[in-house]
Design brief:
Layout lengths: L1 H15 L7 H10 L2 H29 L9 H4 L7 H21 L1 H24 L17 H4 L12 H12 L3 H20 L5 H22 L3 H18 L14
């Protein structure tokens, strides 16, 4: 009986202080599938992205056939074009692998990332429709064997305002939580901006606008879709108290009632 009480006490302390003593699968169940709201979020994401994969290739083929404006980009004119597709590919997909790995430990990162990326994609489609641009002078087409998932087989060059590459990495940077990861993410955003200019894939305004728009979308997403953070903390504490009551030691350890 004393051993059971000790185990229950240890579990209580770990739950309240959010220590990651459980396995990855247990962590997924505790932080995601235990909440009906988070289950609905995950199901919505699963249903949403196949729609994007099916629609976006047709959209990009459409914009490639229309006429656009060639901007006089003073900064871009000073940079001789070079093919750095391999570096761009390595930076982008390296960061995607990093955030997917972090999602194994904390699935709430996956939910936040996918929701933000979905709204960023919608915002980007609207901006591309409203701001028709032609490719910069000296553009070297990007060679990315995995981009065909979104673009189809066509070589797309007019999806300019705002930069999807910069937006993707900015979204990853905002969703990462560890200090080292965020530093790597920030460096990746700066690196991809420079590389895109070197290859003349985007105008300067495309790259500068992307982080600002993504930050606004990320902030709005967190505010309107994940504003139950305190309620979630309270839920974990109530759950811990119920667990202790079942093991008949709830009266020995006070549980905060305000959820903070």
């Amino acid at each position: 009986h004393d051993k059971r009480n000790f185990v229950a006490l240890y579990n209580y302390i770990c739950i309240v202080t959010s220590k990651k003593h459980t396995s990855k699968l247990d962590n997924v169940g505790m932080t995601a599938w235990s909440s009906p709201v988070k289950r609905r979020h995950l199901i919505f994401i699963i249903l949403l992205f196949p729609v994007f994969f099916g629609v976006l290739p047709y959209f990009f083929n459409y914009i490639e056939k229309r006429n656009g404006v060639v901007l006089n980009d003073l900064l871009l004119a000073q940079i001789p074009p070079h093919n750095v597709s391999v570096l761009i590919f390595a930076v982008i997909w390296g960061m995607i692998l990093l955030i997917l790995y972090r999602c194994l430990h904390d699935p709430s990162i996956l939910i936040t990332y996918c929701f933000t990326l979905a709204f960023v994609t919608i915002a980007r489609v609207i901006c591309i429709i409203l701001v028709p641009l032609s490719p910069p002078i000296g553009l070297i087409p990007l060679s990315d064997p995995l981009s065909g998932v979104f673009y189809g087989e066509a070589n797309i060059t007019k999806d300019l305002f705002f930069s999807g590459h910069t937006a993707t990495l900015m979204t990853i940077f905002l969703c990462l939580r560890r200090k080292t990861d965020r530093l790597i993410g920030l460096l990746a955003v700066v690196a991809i901006a420079i590389l895109l200019l070197i290859q003349h894939i985007h105008y300067t305004i495309d790259i500068l606008a992307a982080p600002v728009i993504v930050y606004l979308i990320f902030s709005a997403t967190k505010r309107f879709f994940f504003k139950d953070k305190r309620k979630w903390k309270l839920f974990r504490r109530v759950r811990a108290k119920a667990y202790l009551a079942k093991n008949k030691i709830a009266k020995e350890i006070p549980v905060p009632e305000n959820g903070i």
